[in-house]
């Protein structure tokens, strides 16, 4: 999960002060409420070697359609996009939904590869998957870890990204910023990340993964009354043998309690500088984002065609809670 309160609000607010007015900012209330379970099913899972990984992914839509790559977050899985995928495939898009490293059927190709959850590693995973599938460029969409990864790809390799849909906006990690304390109420929202920083927390997550993640679902989306079948379907992805290693490393790395890999140092230095994203972008704010919901704190970091959309009554898992709105953002992002 992102932990929106940890963002560098001061720096982003200063940058946003000189930004132009949003191209468009709309607020959409949740009328019927989030669906308790996906209405559609993903197709059979395919596997492909891509960089460090053998990636498990779902695919839908015509093979010659405009490619869309949808990236999930923690603690979720590819089923967050079941309904979005059906909507986009029916419109002629080629939709690819991969399990991130440490989730589902995605596996490391070598036992010797570091089980690394840092943001640059996940960004390279996305590029390696595109290379393996012979996709020169694609629209990227994501939330939570997937949103961070999509932002990182758009910032580091803009030529590979024809459009970006990012829930919670510009959530790229700056390690130096993450060392700065926040107000107590903001720190309170990060309880699980501090828990993961301890040996007890690591052991607790390994022993109680599914119960722990269900609690996160509930806390992150308090108005989403998902059913047991929906959670159980996603929770199978946590049986991945590398899952706990990746999750624990991800959060410890963010707090500078675990090192990254030197091969990603140059990319992390670029991302730490908060490079502007020039590709067409639609950002989405939901109730989970709290003070950042209106998008103003990161507006200046998107310098290409841009819109911000606000979803009221929707929690953190935006594509599963509001599939039509997320799919509409994908279809609209390159039409600005």
Automatic annotation (TrEMBL):
Keywords annotated in UniProt: Hydrolase, Signal
GO molecular function: hydrolase activity
Protein biosynthesis found in the keyword field: no
SUPFAM superfamilies membership: alpha/beta-Hydrolases (SSF53474)
Taxonomic source organism: Mycolicibacterium vanbaalenii (strain DSM 7251 / JCM 13017 / BCRC 16820 / KCTC 9966 / NRRL B-24157 / PYR-1) (Mycobacterium vanbaalenii)
Domain AB hydrolase-1: 67-198
Protein name, as recorded: Alpha/beta hydrolase fold protein
Family matches, as InterPro entries: AB_hydrolase_1, AB_hydrolase_fold, AB_hydrolase_sf, Epox_hydrolase-like, TAT_signal
GO cellular component: membrane
Signal peptide extent: 1-32
């Amino acid at each position: 999960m992102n932990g929106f309160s940890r963002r560098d609000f001061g720096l982003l607010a200063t940058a946003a002060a000189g930004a132009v007015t949003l191209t468009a900012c709309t607020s959409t209330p949740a009328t019927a409420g989030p669906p308790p379970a996906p209405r559609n099913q993903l197709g059979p899972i395919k596997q492909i070697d891509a960089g460090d990984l053998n990636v498990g992914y779902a695919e839908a839509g015509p093979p010659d359609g405009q490619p869309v790559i949808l990236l999930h977050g923690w603690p979720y899985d590819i089923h967050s996009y079941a309904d979005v995928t059906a909507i986009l495939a029916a419109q002629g898009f080629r939709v690819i939904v991969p399990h991130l490293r440490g989730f589902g059927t995605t596996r490391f190709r070598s036992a010797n590869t570091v089980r690394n959850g840092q943001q640059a590693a996940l960004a390279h995973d996305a590029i390696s998957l595109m290379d393996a599938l012979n996709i020169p460029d694609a629209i990227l969409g994501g939330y939570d870890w997937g949103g961070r990864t999509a932002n990182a790809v758009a910032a580091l390799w803009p030529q590979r990204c024809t459009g970006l849909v990012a829930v919670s906006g510009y959530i790229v990690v700056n390690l130096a910023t993450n060392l700065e304390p926040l107000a107590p109420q903001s720190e309170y929202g990060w309880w699980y990340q501090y828990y993961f920083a301890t040996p007890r927390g690591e052991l607790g997550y390994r022993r109680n993964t599914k119960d722990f993640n269900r609690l996160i679902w509930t806390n992150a989306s308090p108005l989403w009354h998902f059913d047991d079948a929906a959670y159980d379907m996603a929770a199978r992805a946590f049986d991945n043998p590398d899952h706990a290693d990746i999750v624990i490393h991800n959060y410890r790395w963010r707090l500078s309690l675990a090192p990254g890999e030197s091969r990603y140092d140059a990319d992390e230095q670029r991302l730490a500088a908060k490079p502007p994203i020039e590709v067409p972008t639609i950002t989405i704010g939901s109730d989970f984002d709290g003070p950042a919901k209106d998008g103003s704190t990161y507006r200046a970091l998107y310098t290409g065609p841009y819109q911000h959309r606000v979803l009221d009554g929707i929690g953190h898992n935006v594509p599963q809670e509001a599939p039509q709105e997320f799919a509409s953002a994908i279809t609209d992002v390159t039409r600005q």
